[in-house]
Amino acid sequence: MTDDKDVLRDVWFGRIPTCFTLYQDEITEREAEPYYLLLPRVSYLTLVTDKVKKHFQKVMRQEDISEIWFEYEGTPLKWHYPIGLLFDLLASSSALPWNITVHFKSFPEKDLLHCPSKDVIEAHFMSCVKEADALKHKSQVINEMQKKDHKQLWMGLQNDRFDQFWAINRKLMEYPAEENGFRYIPFRIYQTTTERPFIQKLFRPVSTDGQLHTLGDLLKEVCPSAVAPEVPMPEVCSWLPTWLLASSAEGSHLPSLWRDWEEDGPRLSQQGAENRRNQSPGTETLFWDQVVASDTENVLCLNSRDHPQIHRMVGRSGVGL
Question: Rounded mean pLDDT of 105-123?
Answer without folding.
Answer: 92
